[in-house]
Amino acid sequence: MVTKFMLVKENFKPRHDDVILVTNPKSSTTWLKALAFAIVNRSSFESIDASHHPLLTQNPQHLVPFVGAQGGNLDYLETLPSPRLLTTHLPLSLLPSTVTTMGCRIIYLCREPKDAFISRWHFDNKIAQGAKINIDTTFTMFLEGCSPFGPFWDHYLQYWKESLQRPRDVLFLRYEEIVFDPLKVVRDLAGFIGVPFTEEEVKSGVDQEVVRLCSFKALSDLDINRNGGVERAEGKIFIAYSVLFRQGKTGDWVNHMSKDMGEKLDQLVEDKFKGSGLKL
Ligand code: PAP
């Protein structure tokens, strides 16, 4: 896995007009991909909810290619026309430095760590093929920063600092903001990507249609997301798309973590983010 990541740093060729969606796992990559895809491609579809819209028949994870892990294929990325919409889970330190020097636009999405941890734990249990993942053990590892993409606090902070240094090119978002006001975020995203909604589009509700099309209810009700899935690890693991749509809510951690665990993680977050200005 590490080798694969290092290959990205060496071989991925960013372009100045790339837009890269970045998330730490379980921050709702699925939602961000759906929103960005629907925004960028809206002119290709007469009506955004036309029956042939790709989001109705494909899982959002497959509509925006990954850079790096999870099936990312660097040769394939080279064949894509510009401007490219890409995704990655990689920390900034594992991307080529040209991402910064060329001014690639980055949309970073993070999530309240207790909820992100619980989402991950559920996900791991679902794909564990019957094995029960002990929450205490996984929690200890999470606090120690054991994660395929490094400690979550380094991940968040790298992109947070980048957003302070390049505010025009790096948009730092929180999952909770999208849940709270998806329409505002959709409008902000369109503006940031460089395809703002026109007055006419707003009048006819195109921005609201994007919100509706990408909502948890709309996506999770689709046949592809209820019954489809993808094989990983050379067919040894089957990931049903339904596991990417568990609840889509904030604050579910209270139903699975003790008060003590919650306080421990909150304290860690406070210590790690101290002085950075980052608030979750
Ligand atoms: P990944 O790390 O495997 O890419 P990712 O999409 O980042 O998965 O995270 C899945 C979480 O996003 C799930 O959270 P939960 O376990 O707390 O429920 C999932 O429900 C949530 N999610 C996915 N799509 C949406 C959506 N359209 N609206 C709100 N939440 C969503």
Word description of this protein:
The chain is of the alpha/beta class and 280 residues long. The chain has a single domain, classed as P-loop containing nucleotide triphosphate hydrolases (Rossmann fold, 3-Layer(aba) Sandwich). It is built from 14 helices and 6 strands. The strands form 2 sheets. The chain has a 4-stranded parallel sheet with strand order 2-1-3-4, sandwiched between helices. Strands 5-6 form a two-stranded antiparallel ribbon. Strand 5 and strand 6 form a beta hairpin. Helix 2 (29-40) crosses helix 9. The longest helix is centred in the middle third of the chain and has 15 residues, at 113-127. The model has no long low-confidence stretch (mean pLDDT 93). The chain binds 3'-phosphate-adenosine-5'-diphosphate (PAP). The site of 3'-phosphate-adenosine-5'-diphosphate (PAP) has 21 residues, from helix 2, helix 5 and helix 12. 3'-phosphate-adenosine-5'-diphosphate is lined by residues 23, 25-31, 115, 119, 122, 214-216, 219, 244-248, 252.
| End-to-end CA span | 30 Å
Q: Which CATH class applies here?
A: Alpha Beta
Helical fraction: 40-55%
User: Beta-strand level of the residues, as a percent range?
Assistant: 5-15%
Largest beta sheet: strand ordering? 2-1-3-4
Estimate nothing, just give the exact number of structural domains. Answer: 1
Number of strands: 6
How large is the count of helical segments? 14
Task: Give the structural class.
Answer: alpha/beta
Secondary-structure element string:
HEHHEHEHHHEHHHHHHEEH
Shape: globular
Which ligands appear in the coordinates?
Answer: 3'-phosphate-adenosine-5'-diphosphate
Mean model confidence by pLDDT: 93
**What is the radius of gyration?**
19 Å
Query: Low-confidence stretches at least 5 residues in length (pLDDT < 50)?
Result: none
Report the major sheet. 4 strands, parallel
Question: What is the oligomeric state here?
Answer: single chain
Question: What is the CATH T-level topology?
Answer: Rossmann fold
CATH architecture: 3-Layer(aba) Sandwich
The CATH homologous superfamily name equals P-loop containing nucleotide triphosphate hydrolases
InterPro entries: P-loop_NTPase, Sulfotransferase_dom
GO molecular function: sulfotransferase activity
EC number: 2.8.2.-
Protein name: Sulfotransferase
